[in-house]
Write a structure and sequence with these properties.
CATH architecture of one domain: 2-Layer Sandwich
Structural class: mainly alpha
Helix content: 55-70%
Strand content: under 5%
CATH class of one domain: Alpha Beta
CATH topology of one domain: Alpha-Beta Plaits
Oligomer: single chain
């Protein structure tokens, strides 16, 4: 007689459910390719709803075994699967995602069928026909929502993971998609309330500020909101909660990395060399955008008599190299090869700002109970930011790293409860935190 208690060691996904879900997702991609070639313009409603139904049905079908499974992280076979261990499938997905971003940014005419497919939705939400950025926003939001369902199913036993995933889904759908569209319908400036400088760098550029102010009271409020969130709310929230309040609860980039990128989190490089490169690159981008913003304001203040077109060239090159190539093409397209937080680790200036606060002036830390650590390495393996968490846990040291986004996966996958996310007094936070003994 079979011992049912051993069922926890069995793979989570039943072959039938997995194949059905994967087949539906593949069919949705095929429909998107067909729509892009022209039919999407002739039959927009058919292709739109066909893709939506296939994507959501495929995701739910794939997620059902997770919802039914015994509580516990199910990463069975992730290191052997060619789709999640830099195999042929992973490289194929990476090329597909990278190719889509390249076409979207610089050759949108090849997506005309897909863009026209979005016209009915765009007219309802924005009162105007779709463009390639509306297509991008819609696909981005759908990806966060459907993969968020899978993420919640996988980590359903962790209240922290479920709530923060619902949070990023809410902010992406509401603040980064529906509200900007509704503003356009009211003939107001398109504005993303969940993004601010330096991530949304242009929001404090002189031309953007002037255009918003000239648009009326709503525009003035947008400028006020951006300044308050950048220079007042960010320091206060980061002091109390670390960078996780934004990177893992609000940010759209983090939302995509946590949901769509979850299968690839174990691919992040944990080497010391990678850490050094990360620090140089992310802080260089912050310096770049800070200098660019300062030059634009200096030139605006002197009516362009000092720098001429130089400040504008700085802004253009920043937008091309960082805003397009790095954050879009590389930052997302390389998920299956370099892990889910490529942009957040190596390029995001917002992450750099928040990281400096977190490292030197914040209550947040991950406390460790070294006596309970069995050195299984799960924490380090699944840290998407490339932090060797186990090295801290083995020594009983608190984890206070500027790169940590507070996603909490390290604590979630720990079988011994060694790690705990804390917001404690700032004093003595580098000292081991002694938990009360039971």
């Amino acid at each position: 007689m079979q011992d049912k208690s051993l069922s926890i060691a069995e793979p989570v996904e039943s072959p039938i459910s997995q194949k059905i879900g994967a087949s539906m997702i593949a069919a949705a991609i095929l429909c998107a390719l067909i729509a892009a070639s022209g039919p999407g313009a002739a039959y927009p409603i058919l292709f739109f709803w066909g893709i939506i139904v296939l994507v959501f049905a495929g995701t739910i079908s794939y997620s059902i075994p997770y919802f039914k499974a015994i509580p516990g992280v199910k990463n069975n076979g992730v290191m052997q699967n060619p789709a999640t261990n830099r195999g042929a499938i992973a490289w194929g997905v990476a090329m597909l995602m990278t190719g889509f971003y390249i076409i979207l940014y610089w050759f949108p005419s090849y997506l005309e069928g897909l863009i026209r497919m979005m016209d009915p939705l765009s007219i309802i939400l924005r009162n105007t026909k779709a463009d390639h950025w509306f297509l991008y926003g819609a696909f981005y939001t759908i990806a966060v929502l459907v993969m968020g369902i899978k993420f919640i199913a996988k980590y359903k036993y962790s209240r922290y993971q479920v709530i923060r995933t619902i949070s990023v889904m809410f902010f992406q759908l509401g603040f980064a998609f529906l509200i900007p569209a509704f503003l356009m319908k009211l003939n107001q400036p398109e504005f993303y309330f969940s993004y601010f400088w330096p991530l949304k760098y242009s929001y404090i550029f002189p031309n953007d500020v002037n255009n918003l102010i000239q648009s009326g009271n709503i525009g003035v409020f947008m400028v006020f909101w951006g300044l308050v969130m950048t220079f007042i709310a960010t320091p206060i929230l980061t002091y109390n909660y670390g960078k996780r309040w934004y990177c893992s609860w609000v940010c759209g980039c983090g939302a995509l990395a946590e949901t769509l990128g979850d299968p690839y989190r174990q691919l992040s490089d944990k080497s010391l060399k990678s850490w050094k490169i990360e620090r140089w690159m992310v802080h260089s981008v912050l310096v770049f955008v800070t200098i660019t913003t300062a030059l634009l304001w200096l030139n605006s203040w002197k009516n362009g008599t000092i720098l001429g077109d130089a400040s504008g060239l700085f802004a253009q090159w920043y937008g091309f190299l960082i805003g397009s190539v790095f954050s879009g093409v590389i930052g997302t397209g390389f998920y299956p090869i370099m892990g889910s937080r490529v942009w957040c680790r190596f390029g995001c200036p917002m992450a750099a700002v928040l990281g400096l606060f977190q490292r030197f002036k914040s209550k947040f830390r991950i406390t460790t109970n070294g006596a309970q650590c069995i050195s299984c390495g799960n924490c380090s393996t699944y840290c998407e930011m490339g932090i060797d968490v186990r090295a801290y846990a083995q020594k009983g040291e608190n984890i206070i790293r500027s790169s940590c986004v507070g996603c909490g996966i390290c604590a979630t996958v720990c079988p011994r409860g060694v790690l705990k996310l804390e917001n404690l007094a700032e004093e003595g936070r580098f000292e081991p935190y002694k938990r009360d003994e039971l």
